[in-house]
């Protein structure tokens, strides 16, 4: 049985030794709502701090690779691919999609969620001087493939 509790009820890292190595993939999203003029500044490349999407993409990738340092009891994983995509959504939002892959004994849901979250936080950090009212929302797992628990596809919102 997979649990974060040992026989004495103490938290520990799940032992995945006996689990098979399989291809695993997860996709997570986040959304950052902002003032229309903030989004225009980003899209038009006029932000004084530089290319917001490029910095957020790199931050998301780095975060996925460091997930086990950030989330207690997460396994350190050898990710084979991390992609973070950012795009303007309407006139007042940025949509972030993070996709993580590996061949391993445990899933990559936390890595994808961490990548999307940190990319969103990076956008906030870079733009807070001009728009403190930004809202980070809809951080969620969209899909996962592989592993013992099978595939998952989120319901549309």
From TrEMBL:
Entries under InterPro entries matching the protein: MoaC (IPR023045), MoaC_bact/euk (IPR047594), MoaC_sf (IPR036522), MoCo_biosynth_MoaA/MoaC (IPR050105), Mopterin_CF_biosynth-C_dom (IPR002820)
EC number: 4.6.1.17
Pathway: Cofactor biosynthesis; molybdopterin biosynthesis
Coiled-coil intervals, chain numbering: none
The entry's keywords: Lyase, Molybdenum cofactor biosynthesis
Reactions the enzyme catalyzes: (8S)-3',8-cyclo-7,8-dihydroguanosine 5'-triphosphate = cyclic pyranopterin phosphate + diphosphate
Residues that bind substrate: 73-75, 110-111
One GO term of the biological process aspect: Mo-molybdopterin cofactor biosynthetic process
Catalytic-site annotation from UniProt: 125
Sequence ranges assigned to domain Molybdopterin cofactor biosynthesis C (MoaC) in this UniProt record: 13-147
PANTHER family: CYCLIC PYRANOPTERIN MONOPHOSPHATE SYNTHASE, MOLYBDOPTERIN COFACTOR SYNTHESIS PROTEIN A
Family: Belongs to the MoaC family.
Function noted in UniProt: Catalyzes the conversion of (8S)-3',8-cyclo-7,8-dihydroguanosine 5'-triphosphate to cyclic pyranopterin monophosphate (cPMP).
Protein name: Cyclic pyranopterin monophosphate synthase
Lineage: Bacteria, Pseudomonadati, Pseudomonadota, Gammaproteobacteria, Pseudomonadales
Gene: moaC
């Amino acid at each position: 049985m997979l649990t974060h509790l040992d026989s004495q009820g103490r938290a520990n890292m799940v032992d995945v030794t006996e689990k098979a190595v399989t291809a695993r993939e997860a996709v997570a999203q986040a959304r950052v709502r902002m003032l229309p003029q903030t989004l225009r500044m980003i899209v038009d490349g006029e932000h004084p701090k530089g290319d917001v999407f490029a910095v957020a993409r790199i931050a998301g990738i780095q975060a996925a690779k460091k997930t086990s340092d950030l989330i207690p009891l997460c396994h350190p994983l050898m990710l084979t691919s991390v992609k973070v995509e950012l795009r303007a959504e309407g006139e007042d939002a940025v949509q972030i999609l993070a996709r993580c892959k590996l061949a391993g004994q445990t899933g990559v849901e936390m890595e994808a969620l961490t990548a999307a979250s940190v990319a969103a936080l990076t956008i906030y950090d870079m733009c807070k001087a001009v728009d403190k009212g930004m809202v980070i929302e809809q951080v969620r797992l969209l899909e996962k493939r592989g592993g013992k628990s099978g595939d998952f596809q989120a319901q549309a919102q």
